[in-house]
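Below is one record:
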Amino acid sequence: MKQAAALILSGSIGLSLVACGGNSHGNSGAGRIGSGESVTVAIWDNAQLSGLKEIIEDFTEESGIQAELQVIPWEQYWTLLEAGAQGGDMPDIFWMHSNYSQKFMSNDLLLDLTDRISGSDVIDLDNYYADITELYQLDGRTYAIPKDYDTIGLWYNKELFDEAGLSYPDETWTWNTLAEAAKKLTDKEKGQFGFVCPAANNQDGYYNVIYAMGGSVLNEDKTKSNWDSPETIQAMNWWMDNLVSVSMPSPQMMAENALDVLFGSKKAAMVIQGSWMVANFKENEYIDANCDVAVLPMAEDGTRKTIYNGLGWAANADVENPEECWKLLEYLGSEKAQEKQAALGVTMSAYEGTSDTWVNCAPEFHLQAFLDMTEDMEIRPYTRNTKVWEDYSQSAMVKAYTGEMTMEEVCRDIASFMNEQLADERR
């Protein structure tokens, strides 16, 4: 049955750079905790390795249960999980992402945690952001413990702003303010661009503008795409006319150069990026010394939105040591561990009220901006076939960026494809 489920997954799980921790920077190596028989734990972000290792060491000291923490690069992570499901050799515990959770849950690949949560004195799902919890629930059952959450901020190069005599971004900025500053900061002859956001960047890109300007990607019950709604088309036309066509490099340049490389080499004066990028930006000497972050701009009516997402800690449905795995999952979701996760700068935590200390992990940046963005959040759009329609929408968006299609044509094309997928989900 599990092999059949894995075959169903085959073809639907692809590779991409996805927000909420999905990155390709330094994701190599592994840390081993203890010796002998261990619970195997798989993650994809090497930037979180040392902090999570310390938390799991605390668990081992308290429980006596050994755990082996392994980092698998995002580009390989989902392929290896799929292969593990098909071959019966998945890790015991691993990160789950909203792009894949519906597929994994509906194909019985994740350990059902519902009854264990009900009997736990440690885990109360009311303590976590409800949208994050719901990402990992299906038919009233829960298959992962919320790990973290992320928001989006506006990163900017102080040196380039100073050279241009411009004030730094702040909470008074609108998206039009950003567009005006981006235009002034663009000097294409020098290879300097006021604002950079590749066509593939949605959570950490145009989704935030869509929702701030009154549009959306899905209707409320996830049965219809809203990519073709007047509000969404208007927001994306604004994005195209005021940013893509004016202040961004060519799609080819953005495809060939990672966003952090462009930002760290003074090619990009502003980028919008998630809280998951703090560790990578801190490690870049130039960004660390010359850049900062502010809240996202607001629409002209004062609406400020951030798309947010969160990972979940899940376990293999066929795990041989379910009780040991549950104890580790329970510990990772505890208030104690979630507070330490934030304090160590691993990431903001999904347990509400435990993330205030996270801002101290990189005092050179105004990380409070990411916490301030929690005032008006929209969960990253998802359905059972998220990966399929999102891959399509990202590819289609390239056609708008290159001028092969108008932005409105692309929006309507994405909506048509999504509606086919959503209809298939209901069959």
